[in-house]
Prior knowledge:
By secondary structure, the chain is mainly alpha-helical. The chain is 74% helix and 0% strand.
Amino acid sequence: MALQTRTSSGAQSLDKEAGISVEDANRSNMTGSKTDEEKRLVKRQDLRIMPLSAAIFLLCYLDRSNIGNAKTLNANTKNDLMTETRMSNYQYVIALMAFLIAYAIFEVPSNYVLKKLRPSRWISILMLSWGALTMCLGATNSFATVTAVRFLLGISEAGLFPGLVYYLTFWYRADERSIRVAFILASATLAGAFGGALAYAIGHMQGVSGLSAWRWLFILEGLPSFLSGIAVWFILPDFPETAKWLSVDERELAAHRLQVEGSKSSDSDLTWAQAKETLTDWRLYAHYAIYFGISVPFSSLSLFTPSIVIGLGYANLQAQLMTVPPYAVAYVVTLCVSYSADRLNARAYHAAGSAILGAAGFIASALLPATSFKARYACLIIACCGAFGCIPPLLGWISSNLHSTSSVGLAVALNISLGIPGQITGVWIYTPNEKAKGYPTGHWTNFAMLIFVAVASIALAFYYRRRNARMIRANGGNVGDLRLFTY
Length: 487
């Protein structure tokens, strides 16, 4: 049996005082069931870790995507980012690409540093960096300065999301991570809602202290990240075995829970053999291809929703405010889809269903007359729900099918990095010259990508089903201790 019994005094105290034997903890690891003591432990961890992790990602996503609000904020009075920095639309897209290129390059190295430096230290440093750089965007005055700062911002933000996914492996078993990854990721849609509301409010600060409103937008949205970075240094728990807010028995229980399906602070670094195994596991490239597909609508909606809303007949500050409902509804839908996918252990089918929903929203937007503003606004809400809703099940799916915790950090970082070309594609598909037509190219492209995501997800699910059947047949028709693929 892979999981061996400890005979230390800590393990003995776990047996006598916590009311759970080492054998029970081991059995729980193999069956996926939880004792009452484990449930209480997981709840304590959730209260300390999950709200903080979600808030960190919300701030990250807010600072990443607020350039879309700055682009259109007070554009009717020529006090917007584009006018004051004298950028063309082509140059604006190049500035967006600079962020994505840096993001792709530095994602994997950042995950490596997180383990070497401790999560609280590295995530704090990242927050301080991107908070300061976001505020620096408020001082830019040309295409060159905007592009340079956006590139540095990409470096700073690159490691956060894959880092948070890897961080969860220190605290949770494989079957517990998907819904928690979804909770963190859903805060991106919440950031979109907050971003629109904040842009509407900050838009009224035009001329305060001699600064344009878009400059205040960057300053006031970067400051919370910077200040929070200082707090995270002290309050983000690193590892269960060093958590002083857990009792000795709880730390022992946490260690036993994660002996098979978790990472530890004492784990050795990723070896070349482990990296090679992950890099040559060809089934993972199907996951990467699917994530490429969803990255196109994810990127385009994240950065161009304010522009799309302006094309629906809303103007200036009202357009900023009208970006809130699509993101707010998508936040609720994302959480519901993620919970259902986790509870039913059917992530592939939930991802496919969400992708089909989003595709329906985009194709309806493309086919409706450009002047059908209300109908196309409803379609935008549907598209956001589908596009954002299928991402958490996809990420939960790949992480649940990684049977070695040492490969989780690398594979998740690669998954997101290889989705960057999709995000780069997404920044090119909504062109200003199609505004009067309702942006048909962007909508058709996103429709095609989401159909690909749906079909590929179902195909990969059938592949996993066949592999499971072969493994069971090879094991004499018994599941036994087989680690089957989920779908």
